[in-house]
Amino acid sequence: MEVAGGVHGLDRRLPDRVELLRPVRCAGFIPKSIDNENLSEYCDHAVDADYQAVLAAHGAEANARWPALDRRVSAASPAIPLFSRRSLLLVSDRVGNAQMHLGLGPLLDQFWVHWCC
Length: 117
Known about the structure:
The protein has 117 residues and is mostly helical. The chain has helices at 17-21, 45-56, 59-76; strands spanning 95-96, 100-101, 105-106, 112-113.
């Protein structure tokens, strides 16, 4: 068994199922090349075929197929995250309805401030 380590991140503010699987598809695997997008060198043609089938499906059928494909890729563990970036929002006791959006950050238009003592 060969094990390799490295640091690579997805530069996405909003998670997208299609984009999350792109780095582990055979199409991105170019052996011994600096243009290789598939850093884990994971290539399973059956997974790629399922990926194409999911993309071609619509509605409830597509929604039913995504979890199975995700479980299959997760079970293979082509990449293991070292950490997950999180955001922290500190507000005063006088601020109410403080909401965070994963991609946009603090939703300032949803905040309210109690101005009185």
